[in-house]
Design brief:
The complex is a heterodimer of chains A (246) and B (1244). With 246 residues, chain A is of the alpha+beta class. Chain A is built from 6 helices and 11 strands. In chain A, helix 3 packs across helix 6 and helix 5 packs antiparallel against helix 6. The longest helix of chain A has 34 residues. Chain B is α+β, with helices and mostly antiparallel strands and 1244 residues long. Chain B is 52% helix and 9% strand. Chain B is built from 48 helices and 16 strands. In chain B, strands 1, 2, 3, 4, 6 and 8 form a 6-stranded antiparallel beta sheet that branches. In chain B, strands 11, 12, 13, 14, 15 and 16 form a 6-stranded antiparallel beta sheet that branches. Classes of the chains: A alpha+beta (246), B alpha+beta (1244). Chains A and B meet through helix 1, helix 2, strand 6, helix 3 and helix 5 of A and helix 1, helix 2, helix 4, helix 6 and helix 8 of B.
């Protein structure tokens, strides 16, 4: 019979968040809203965008994964991309906690066949735009896998990690979703590859990289913006939020 | 040197890196744009430097800026530079940037082709991986064409990491370069059984994606997917496969029947919600595809509905949402089972989550009946009042209209009520759906004659209160309603109580603020009203009233004559002059009314939206030919204003037909017709128009003809809030009526033959409030039924609608770069064609021609078969026999097993697979199936959990089959041999590049028949022959197929098969059975009959051959007596039986040999005087090898053991001596295999 134990991560239903996983909340976080928004198909949609006091302050990474048709693609400019992000953010952010995590696709994301599937972690929204060939619950799981992988790779990730290292976020995502299709769902496999990448990076940097690293360490010191380096210890608020997947 | 590097890096360590950029942007929130522009300047400076690290850093920052919405396409060339860096770190930055900014229009993409190719073949797997990832985002048709071959090579890379990426990217390649699909498909299919789960899931992913768009081409893969479904444990893969089956079942109902069992089992057993949900979804799809009249599936429906109810009741909103979504699918075919959950769905309407409410609304659509329509709509109207967001309110509005108008107003019993609902909806603030309401009003007023009086009264009120609608400029959408109101009042003005008042309302100065197309309708209909008024006052002695009307028009019309809108202006000035003329006549006391009315005479009939398209072009009519000489320049200029004029027509304009019947119509009427003819929107449906009746030539069908009960009095001037009351009143009356009707019921039932429509029987007791006459839309005579204009010609997936079962043509090969110096990477075929001497080349071209012919024949045959399949779905048995290439358990199937098979074989495989009855439970681990099915043909899953236990009928059936087949087999042996040839051609071709594979092996002369079955034991009663096959799925199991043949005249029954297990090999017994218990052979043998049973053995070590002792006990039952008999045997597990025929491509083969993990050994055989191709065929057949490549008298062969050992052979022959060099990662296995090889050839 089907063994339940060795299945992949699909099915954490009902969407339990492992207890060890908690987003660190940073001092001024409430004033910023970041949307994570990435899209697998049909349209690209993207990840992480901000509204309010700092427009453009935050990570805006585009995940242009797969377009449904070339026709659509030709319309796709930076402007429309930004518009999609904005509207998506608008749609997602005004939704209450405790409502379902699916949004019917509007014209913007390529018609009714497409859905927005999102998850809300503290101040971050991770949004995938998928078409009907994906399982809704599966994608919710995929987001969970993504976030957990980020957590693993950044060692207790916070939004600032994502903001300052959007390239790394991209590379991790590329190990999961390629060309708009799900490539890998096994978390350990993904993080192994990500680690291998960073190992290669380090070995390539060699001596030459050392001074640069030192400088960036210096740069990062004393900066109020990087509260991650200031050990707040107990003060760091564990966001109990996460109620959207109880 | 090192110093220089360090110095360089010190220089640049003070450059801004990405983190600095982000920080900077965050610190300059006030003047962000300025800050970024300085940053971009810096970046431009950095890009000019030679240091690649600096460039990479700059590109990295640019990528970030691109994500913020800045255009960075100017740096495309620098991105290419960074991509070509040798360092992984920079390369990755480059590819990331490329995947972000490159698109099909980017010209530098052409420059990347060689770079990407280099990266793809890089020894570093991460370079390859990064290139694949990047390429997946910006692949263009050119790139796809140039790189398809390289990517295909990567699909059999040794590293699963690369394999899975290569497999996945193939989908993008197919999309951009559809020609690559057929050559690449065999390999893709092969990857479905890749040992690595990631690769497997990628392949499933790609095939599912392809199949979703063009399901019919992938039906032949159903057995394979079925096997995967029953064996896979990866939920991702399962979900994909189950979704795929959902797409396939509508095409093949038999597939659905087969699926239902395992799916229901999954539904019962799985704990994963995602999987459960997909299973339910697919079961629903299956049920939809099966004819609804199948009573035995009601259990499945019940199960689905029940599971969905659990989902909907769950507190998790996501599950609730999905439950409703799936429920709406069931609703389409099994509305009854959903209707019982009405309570739940109405409850969901009150959910605070908008998405859930919307889904519940969808469901409501199917739940209405004549009884509850009003109730439900009332509830929805309440929601409309409460709703906050306009989107939700608009959605509600469309839903209300959808619900009411569905299937030609089937559920509406009281059209007065419906009109008042529509009028009430016009009070909605800020809705975008004014035109929807308007078209409903028009539709109802035109098609329901009885309601016109009421409708006109309501519309008149609307016109009177037009200021309420137009007052707010934001409510622009709703003023469309006035368009309908004005038209209805004008067209059916004879029903107006006070036309004068309405006329006055229509000519108010405020009207001039309305949109042009509405004003135009106002003006035109004012004229109609004028005609009515004239007629009304005709006979009267006092012509005062009529003259007043003319004066009113003459006073008010100039306002419209000044309109900026052309149409309004034109119509107004025409009518103004007409009225002035009439006034003159009136003053002379001439009776004009009749003539004025004649302007607007004629009945309007509804026409179906697609009617015009369906009119067949009469013979001899060339629509493109000029009727007159092409018009001169000046004439065409005249034409122009007309076009503009036509465009201003409203989109929702209700189509009318242009009957050319009344020739006496005035010139004005002609003009009107002209307008319609020029109207591009004429005939086209508004999005809201109801369902079209496609039946050609449908004429007026009086749909509902029911007695008129108490007609409701129209309230005089309904204000917006009165409508609710009105409706409530109506509800109450309705109830009262219902009670009344209860008594009348009997009489009702007796009377009236109702035509066409009318709801479920139980609802007949509701009597419509009016005499209703629903006029159906007209279709022209000889309308063409074809209806394929819905497809989007731009859909890239259309290009992928390719028949994959057709054998590959010679021309269908991926372009290979011939100029490339490294021959190693190019496919096998290249190499071969180089090494083949010129004469054979010529010959082969001839052969190719022949092949083509054969192929065509085959194609024809397969087409015929397909046709047959459709015709004789029920008589499958006949079908089986009629198919010449039905895989009987003879040699060729086994050879054909692993590599992709040809069309006909596959089609029949599928047919057979679909028609075969379920196999017995896996728990027993004894699989009986009709002998026609070969295990390795992957057609029948060896074990299916929890299948029903109906083996009995199947047994008898299959034994019958067997008999027939054996006879046939003998008769047709010669034929088959020939056919096998075709077969093998296809293999070669199907393999794409390596056309010298199995194909050529048997080209020269026919092979002697071969069988792998060897005698196990024999006595006077029974003979047992057996064959051992490895199991693809399980690395520790082998299947022993034993054919029992009854040689006696008696009946053999109660056969029990038992084997003495060794430490290494054990017979799989059902759970609960002791280790020494025998297995019952699940059939009995009448005299002279043979049948096959399968037994599964588990083995641990496969490096050594094994012998197992066993016994068969059985009862011989003759007429007079029955005796117990016993037969001992020895099962010989050779090492070859652990090998599985696995195709291998020469590139992968070369890599395998280069890897150095394999240990070698060799063998010499003397005195072999059989042709080389016979020799190879024997090795292939008896020892489960496949030919990788053959050049002259030398061939490389490959096989894999069930535990994954690779076995490679290099077979050379010269002068009756055959030398075999072999390599394997397990020396003792290799030794044994070689010994067995030797034995095989010593026998002959």
């Amino acid at each position: 019979m089907r063994s339940v134990s060795n299945r992949s991560t699909v099915d954490l239903a009902p969407w339990a968040v492992p207890s060890r996983f908690a987003w660190k909340s940073c001092g001024d976080v409430k004033s910023r809203v970041i949307t994570g928004c990435l899209c697998c198909r049909a349209v690209n949609v993207q990840m992480v965008q901000s509204q309010a006091p700092w427009p453009c302050t935050n990570v805006v990474t585009n995940f242009r994964c797969r377009q449904k048709s070339t026709k659509y693609r030709s319309l796709q400019t930076e402007d429309t991309e930004q518009q999609i992000i904005r509207e998506t953010f608008h749609l997602v952010s005004k939704r209450d906690e405790n409502v379902c995590n699916f949004l019917e696709g509007g014209l913007l994301i390529g018609g009714s066949e497409n859905k927005l599937i999102y998850r809300h972690y503290a101040t971050l929204y991770f949004v995938f735009c998928v078409d009907s060939s994906e399982s809704e619950l599966g994608i919710l799981d995929l987001i969970q896998v993504f976030v957990e992988t980020l957590d693993k790779c950044f060692e207790n990730v916070c939004e600032l990690d994502l903001i300052f290292h959007m390239d790394k976020v991209h590379n991790i995502l590329a190990e999961m979703v390629m060309g708009g299709m799900v490539l890998e769902t096994n978390m350990s496999e993904i993080s192994t590859q990500a680690e291998a990448h960073s190992k290669m990076e380090k070995s390539e940097a060699g001596i030459a990289g050392a001074p640069a690293r030192a400088v960036s360490a210096v740069k990062n010191m004393n900066l109020p913006e990087m509260p991650k380096n200031i050990n707040i210890g107990d003060i760091s608020i564990k966001v109990p939020n996460l109620s959207s997947f109880k | 040197m090192a110093l220089k590097i360090v110095k360089g890096s010190i220089d640049r360590m003070f450059d801004k890196n990405l983190q600095d950029l982000v920080r900077g942007i965050r610190n300059h929130k006030e003047d962000e744009a300025k800050y970024i522009s300085t940053c971009i300047d810096e970046i431009k400076q950095e890009l000019k430097q030679d240091n690649i690290a600096v460039k990479a850093n700059a590109v990295c920052k640019l990528t970030y800026l691109q994500m913020l919405g800045y255009d960075v396409s100017w740096a495309a060339f620098n991105i290419v530079e960074v991509m070509s860096s040798s360092k992984f770190t920079f390369k990755r930055i480059g590819y990331l940037a490329a995947s972000q900014c490159f698109h099909e229009g980017t010209d530098v993409i052409m420059l990347t082709t060689n770079q990407i190719r280099k990266d793809l073949s890089s020894p570093n797997q991460y370079d390859t991986g990064v290139a694949l990832t990047g390429l997946s985002c910006f692949v263009t048709p050119d790139l796809a064409r140039d790189l398809a071959n390289d990517i295909m090579t990567l699909m059999s890379h040794t590293k699963p990491y690369i394999r899975k990426k290569a497999v996945l990217i193939m989908y993008k390649v197919f999309l951009k370069y559809p020609e690559s699909l057929r050559p690449a498909f065999p390999r893709l299919k092969e990857k479905l059984e890749d040992p690595d789960p990631g690769v497997q899931s990628a392949a499933v992913n790609v095939i599912c994606e392809l199949a979703r768009r063009n399901p019919k081409n992938y039906l032949s893969l159903a057995p394979l997917f079925f096997k995967l479904m029953t064996s896979s444990t990866n939920n991702w893969v399962l979900i994909k496969i189950i979704k795929l089956f959902g797409a396939l079942t509508p095409l093949e109902p038999r597939l659905g029947k087969k699926l239902i069992e395992p799916l229901t089992n999954l539904i019962h057993s799985t704990s994963a919600m995602s999987l459960l949900y997909e299973c339910v979804n697919t079961v629903i799809a299956v049920l939809i595809s099966l004819s609804s009249g199948m009573p035995n599936h009601s259990a499945s429906i019940q199960l689905c509905v029940q599971k969905l109810r659990i989902l909907i009741e769950d507190s998790d909103q996501n599950l609730k949402y999905l439950g409703l979504l799936a429920m709406s699918k069931i609703l389409k075919t099994h509305p009854k089972s959903v209707q019982s959950h009405k309570d739940l769905i109405l409850q969901c309407l009150d959910d605070k989550d908008e998405s859930i409410r919307l889904r519940a609304l969808d469901l409501l659509y199917g739940m209405v009946s004549k009884k509850n329509l009003m109730e439900i709509v009332k509830k929805l109207m309440l929601h409309v009042d409460k709703a906050e967001g306009t989107t939700y309110r608009d959605e509600l509005l469309t839903k209300i209209i959808d619900i009411c108008s569905q299937s030609n107003y089937q559920y509406i019993t009281n059209f007065e009520w419906y009109i008042s609902i529509l009028v009430e909806l016009t009070r909605l603030e800020g809705t975008r759906h004014g035109h929807l309401i308007a078209s409903q009003m028009l539709d109802v007023a035109i098609r329901v004659k009885a309601i016109r009086g009421f409708a006109v009264a309501q519309m008149a009120t609307l016109l009177d209160n037009a200021h309420l609608l137009t007052g707010n400029t934001q409510r622009n959408g709703i003023c469309e309603v006035l368009y309908a109101a004005a038209w209805i009042c004008g067209e059916f003005s004879e029903h107006l109580e006070d036309p004068m008042q309405t006329l006055e309302a229509m000519l108010r100065p405020k009207v001039a603020t309305l949109p042009g197309h509405i004003q135009a309708v106002y003006v035109q209909n004012a004229a109609k009203l004028f005609a009515t008024v004239l007629q009304k006052h005709e006979g009267e002695t006092d012509s005062q009233a009529a003259q007043e009307t003319s004066q009113l028009l003459i006073d008010r019309l100039p306002l419209f004559v000044q309109s900026a809108n052309l149409e309004v202006q034109e119509r107004a000035s025409c009518i103004l002059q007409l009225v002035k003329y009439i006034q003159k006549l009136q003053q002379k006391n001439v009776e004009v009314a009749e003539e004025v009315t004649a302007l607007f005479a004629g009945e309007l009939n509804p026409v179906a939206p697609k009617a015009q398209k369906k009119v067949p072009i009469p013979e001899g009519l060339d629509l493109d030919a000029w009727i007159n000489e092409p018009p001169s320049e000046s004439e065409s200029e005249d034409e122009k204003p007309k076009a503009v004029f036509a465009k201003e027509e409203p989109k929702h304009y209700r189509s009318r037909n242009t009957e050319v019947d009344e020739k006496e119509l005035a010139r004005r009427r002609e003009v009107r017709k002209q307008e319609q003819a020029n109207n591009p929107f004429y005939i086209k449906a508004s999005p809201s128009s109801q369902k079209v009746y496609d039946a050609p030539g449908v004429e007026h069908i009086p749909v509902v003809q029911i007695d008129l009960s108490v007609p409701l009095k129209v309230p005089g001037m309904p204000m917006s809030d009165q409508y609710l009351k009105l409706e409530e009143e109506r509800q109450q009356k309705e109830k009262a009526e219902r009670k009344k009707k209860e008594k009348k019921k009997k009489r009702e039932k007796r009377g009236k033959g109702r035509k066409a429509d009318s709801g479920p029987e139980s609802e007949e007791d509701i009597t419509p409030a009016q005499h209703v006459d629903i006029v159906t839309e007209e279709m022209p005579e000889n309308a063409l039924p074809s209806d394929d204009d819905d497809k989007d010609p731009n859909d890239p997936h259309r290009a992928l609608d390719i028949d994959l079962d057709k054998p590959l043509a010679d021309s269908e090969k991926l372009p290979v770069r011939t100029h490339r110096p490294e021959v190693l990477k190019s496919p096998a075929e290249d190499r071969v064609s180089e090494s083949v001497p010129p004469e054979t080349k010529k010959k082969s071209s001839k052969e190719k021609k022949e092949k083509k012919k054969d192929k065509e024949k085959d194609r024809k045959r397969s087409k015929e078969e397909k046709k047959k399949k459709k015709k004789h779905k029920e008589v499958e048995e006949e079908l089986l026999e009629s198919q010449p290439e039905e895989p009987v358990q003879s040699e060729e199937t086994k050879e054909a097993a692993a590599p992709p098979t040809s069309t006909s074989a596959e089609a029949s495989d599928l047919d057979f697979w679909l028609s075969s009855a379920p196999v017995p439970p896996a728990a027993q681990e004894v699989t009986v199936s009709s002998s026609a099915v070969d295990t390795s043909s992957a057609a029948v899953p060896e074990s299916e959990p929890d299948e029903p236990k109906d083996t009995e009928p199947e047994d008898t059936k299959s034994s019958k089959h067997k008999k027939k087949k054996q006879k046939k087999e003998k008769e047709e042996k010669e034929k088959k041999k020939k056919k096998r040839h075709h077969h093998h051609h296809h293999h070669g071709e199907a393999g794409g590049e390596d056309s010298v594979q199995n194909g050529t092996v048997e080209e020269e002369e026919p092979l002697p028949p071969m069988s792998n079955y060897s005698v196990l034991a024999e006595n006077s009663f029974i003979k047992m022959v057996y064959d051992i096959q490895g199991n693809h799925q399980d690395e520790s199991k082998v299947v022993v197929s034993i054919i029992f043949e009854n040689k006696s005249d008696s009946f053999l029954k109660s056969m029990e098969f038992n084997v003495l297990d060794s430490l290494n090999s054990k017979l799989q017994r059902p759970e609960g059975a002791g280790p020494h218990d025998g297995l019952t052979v699940p059939f009995q043998l009448p005299p002279g009959v043979s049948n096959e049973a399968r037994f599964v053995f588990s083995v641990q070590s496969i490096v050594m051959p094994q012998k197992l002792k066993g016994t068969l006990t059985f009862i011989v039952k003759s007429d007079e007596s029955s005796t117990h008999e016993k037969l001992d045997f020895k099962l010989h597990f050779t090492c070859t039986s652990y090998l599985i025929t696995t195709p291998c491509y020469s590139d992968a083969y070369a890599k395998l040999l280069e890897s150095g993990d394999l240990k070698g050994s060799s063998l010499r055989l003397e005195g072999i005087n059989m042709p080389f191709h016979h020799l190879l065929a024997r090795i292939c057949f008896h020892h489960h090898f496949s030919v990788v490549e053959r050049i002259d008298s030398c061939a490389s062969m490959y096989s894999r053991s069930i535990q994954g050992h690779h076995v490679c052979l290099l077979v050379k022959t010269s002068d009756q001596t055959v030398s075999i060099d072999a390599k394997c990662d397990e020396p003792s296995l290799l030794g044994n295999v070689l010994d067995e090889l030797k034995q095989t050839f010593s026998k002959c």
